[in-house]
Amino acid sequence: SDALLSRLVLRWRPGVNTGDGDETTVVGPVSFFSLEFSGALGSRAQRENAFSEIARDPPTARDDSFSFQHVVSGLTPDTTYVFRLRAFNGVGPGPYVWRRFSTPPARPIAPVPVRVGARAVVLRWTVPDMVARRAVELRRSFDEVSAGSLHASRVEWLRVVAAHYAPLLSFLQGVTTTRGAATHLSGSGSAGHSGPARQSLLDILESSDHDIIDWAWLCDCLGTATCRDGEETTQFLADALTCAGGHATAGAAADAAVARHVQRLASPTTYVLERCLSELHGEWEEVLRTRFGEATINGLDAGAAHQFRVRAVNAAGAASPSGRATVINTLLNSPPPPRLARAHVRATTNRYPRASAPPHGDVVGVGGFERRFAVSSTTVKLVWLGATDKLTGGHGLNGRGGGPSDRILAEWTGTAGEDEGAVSLTAVLARYSHGREDATFDGKVLPDVLTRLGAHRTHDAEDTALRAAWDELRDAARDVVRTAHFAAWWNADVVTHILQRDQGVPAGRSGGGPSLGTVTTYRGSGRGTEVHGLEPNTRYKFRLRLVSPRSHSRLSPPLEVWTAPAPPSSPIIVRDETKAIVLNWRAGPGGATKYVLESRLVNSRDDGTAAQAPTPTVRHLAAPVRAHVRHRTNATAASYDWKVSYEGHETTVRVCGLQPRSTYRFRVRALNDAGHGGPPSALTQASTASEAQMLVPRRAAEQFSVRAAGDIVVGDTILFTERLLVDRGGNGALLGEPARGSARPLASNANRGNCRSRNATGPQHVGDRTVAAHVVAEAHYTKKGVRELRLEIVWCTVSSHDAAPYVLRPGDVTQRDAAHVIQFQTFRQPWVDEHKRLP
Asked: Coil, strand or helix: which one is 234?
């Protein structure tokens, strides 16, 4: 009994004097005995050798019978106390006899699983120091306000905690509770699931309407609390509050702490951890002995039920009653990560007899990934392995240890089915069946049943898991669970696969930030699924978890998947030339890392030139000196194949090396950071010009017919005017001219002018310059708020002879601020596809 742990029964007899041999001699008559007590070993009274008399035997001179014993009550379990005894007679007192006696250890708390794995668990059965300190601070702060009573002012107590107990304040903020409300399950679907909202205990206290709070109510709230530090912290709170409740003052608490430290040194306690072999037969085996309050148990079966309990033994050999047992279901082995499903490629006939491959066929280095794997811009198809003995521990999912040979032996001996092992489902269900075969229980009881079976960590890990179990077990007609149905579900070898993904990291963003949570994309017993609703050109991480009625696994290693970029817009024709075509396209949603432009010759009106036609060459406008030449061939049939004309980051390119008076088809693919391409864009058909259309100043009004009202984009051919201001005090350099790409005037021209202009200082207006140029690139400078345009000069004229040295040569590349270009009237040449120019 636990009541015997707090008392000692002391017995003695008259003094004897032991001789050299085995003979003993009784020493003198005794009138009475006096028993004295100094307190626990290590306490202040014991350290100061202060004793007080607690009993006399017999109590008075009128009592002539000796009891030779005394019961000392109100002691603390697992504590060593110091006593002394002496006898009195008519001559006087005799010498003291000193003894130390220890109370049996207290019943240990149920082992709390700190970490649970597939083959090992870490158990703890002593209160952590952090939790013990918070419990002592809670009691001490409460007593400061209540003056030792069980009631305190709520406002005053919160003020004291905020002013003097900052760690306790943070601890209470992290404790959430429902104040004893239980989760209610009824009906089907989410509409019938109404669980109480959990609130921070500190928020409840601050918003309470009660001016007086009770210590018992506070303990009840903490008893149903959940700590952010983990489940084990929550389970230690009740025991810590019980220990803290016996020390009303700070001095008593400090003295008790010193005494406990001395006790541990003088009389260390040994803990015996036991594991249940058969709950039905009450068989337990000792696993280990340790003086620590935590232990790791290895070599367990994966996905099996285990039951552990602890008893304590002190240095004198006195043992405590066994503590409450804890049921733990080890995890299933973690599954391997899911895999990308292979794409189903259908055989197609060639509908283009003049081409050696269909227009949507694969090209070298592009499109191979999406042809092999089922990945698109918004969907991903994944597959995974089914549950095997390797994942479930080699003994199925019914929770019984041992391999196939153990089960065969049990069936042969006739003991199969009689012993349910460490956890008896029959014993658990008997608490609710009351001897009836057709017993049922409602949704309020389901969490308690799962807790007694050790599966609450699996089905309470998330609200949807408990809801899924209820929906599978409930009898829809009566809204209850039949015990027979629950037993069949519990013993079934069924594994549910749960596929989860993160929120995704778009291309160009770092994925090292905090996680935004996970999304469950599949829950079922299948071996694959197609995930929808993804964003294009985004990296996702997919993980798989196994869940059985008894246990679950950890998440698998992640599978990183890049969704394909969305198809770009169809190529837009900017302008056509006799042997070149300038194209522009826009990125799809989510953007892309780079693009691949493909071209195919449709027909040519030049007789006999198709076979000798060179492959299209790209001079992309951002770097006109570079070119990509791919797949040169002289075969006539190959001229009509799809070829890579450009591969890079730009969205405006000039495809050169084409045949005059010929028709081509173009399409664009987008590639992501992983090099995976999406489907091609819609086709665009364009023809090279029959005659060269030269841009010349005399036809400027005809060729530049569209006013550019600040909407200049890459690919435009613009006409603008700028004023030329020369520094008269320098070498004739233009003021405001960019350092790179600017035209350098000749020294002889820079020194022209009359004497007054040469001797003057400040800017001098020498004329205006009209420039026609292709916009080949743009750059944005966010900090400066500047948009710069890179221009390739087509032609340039000046308004005066003094400005002649500042004429820009055709083909020069210069750079201008966009605001500078549109300072005066600016015009542009219309695109061939002018209606598609702006989104």
From this structure: helix
Mind giving me the DSSP string for 646-667?
A: EEES-SEEEEESPPTTEEEEEE
- Average pLDDT over the chain reads 77
> DSSP string covering 272-298, please?
EEEEEEETTTTEEEEEEEESSSEEEE-
DSSP secondary structure letters along 578-640: SSEEEEE----TT--SEEEEEEEEEEESSTT-STTPPPPEEEETTSTT--B-------TGGGG
**215-223 and 129-146 helices cross at what angle (nearest 10)?**
160
Local structure of 351: helix, strand or coil: coil
Contact 268, 513 (CB under 8 A): no
Q: Is the peptide bond before 77 cis (omega within 30 degrees of 0)?
A: no
Q: Residue 205: which of 136, 140, 152 has the closest Cα?
A: 152
Quick one: tokens of 674? 């992983």
User: Which amino acid is it at 732?
Assistant: G
- In tens, the pLDDT along 580-637 reads 999 999 988 888 888 999 999 988 876 544 444 455 555 545 333 333 333 333 444 4
For the chain, first and last CA: distance in Å?
84
Q: Is the pLDDT confidence value at 4 over 50?
A: yes
| Per-residue model confidence as pLDDT tens digits over 510-555 | 655 445 578 899 988 889 999 999 999 899 999 999 988 888 899 9
pLDDT of residue 454: 84
| Segment 785-807, tens digit of pLDDT | 788 899 999 999 999 888 888 89
**Cα within 13 Å of Cα(824), Cβ side:** 9
441 to each of 194, 463, 487, 719, how far by Cα in Å? 18, 20, 13, 84
> Would the pTM count as exceeding 0.90?
no
DSSP conformation letters of 674-691? TS-B------EEEE--SS
Paired strand residues for 328: 306
Does residue 667 or residue 206 have the better pLDDT?
Answer: 667
What the block records as the tokens of 795 is: 């032609």
Alpha-helical runs (H) found in 383-455: 389-392, 404-413, 425-433, 446-452
- Please work out, in degrees rounded to the nearest 5, the angle formed at the alpha carbon of residue 314 by the alpha carbons of 312 and 319: 50
Q: Is the pLDDT of residue 275 over 90?
A: yes
Distance CA 257, CA 234 (A): 23
Neighbours of 191 (CB within 10 A): 8
- In the chain, how long is the greatest CA-to-CA distance? 147
Q: Which one-letter DSSP state was computed for residue 302?
A: T
3-class DSSP state of 375: strand
What is the C-alpha separation between 588 and 834, in angstroms, rounded?
A: 20
DSSP H helices, 483-527, are 483-491
Strands 662-671 and 684-687: antiparallel
User: What average pLDDT does this structure show over 78-103?
Assistant: 89
Which of the pair, 96 or 359, is modelled with greater confidence?
96
Torsion of CA 645, 650, 652, 658, to 10 degrees: -20
Under DSSP, is residue 693 helix (H, G, I), strand (E, B) or coil?
coil
CA torsion, ordered 200, 205, 208, 210, to nearest 10 deg:
150
The CA distance from 130 to 124, in Å, is: 14
Residues in the chain: 839
Q: How far apart are CA 623 and CA 653, in angstroms?
A: 10
